[in-house]
Write a structure and sequence with these properties.
By secondary structure, the protein is an all-alpha fold. The protein has one domain. The protein is built from two helices and no strands.
């Protein structure tokens, strides 16, 4: 992915590079939020399963 990123960036104008960098930053932030949400959901689900098993 990094090599494609670098190759694509070579063909950009300065304005396009700036726009692409902003897009990349936003995408990274979105993925971080998504990963945190997935972790919280999975942790809660795991705890609910553990409680269900231990209370039977």
């Amino acid at each position: 992915m990094a090599s494609h990123h670098e190759e694509l960036e070579k063909s950009f104008t300065d304005e396009q590079k700036e726009t692409f960098e902003k897009f990349h930053d936003c995408w990274s932030e979105y993925m971080s939020l998504a990963e945190a949400t997935i972790f919280k959901y999975a942790f809660k689900l795991g705890m609910q399963m553990a409680i269900a098993v231990l209370t039977k």
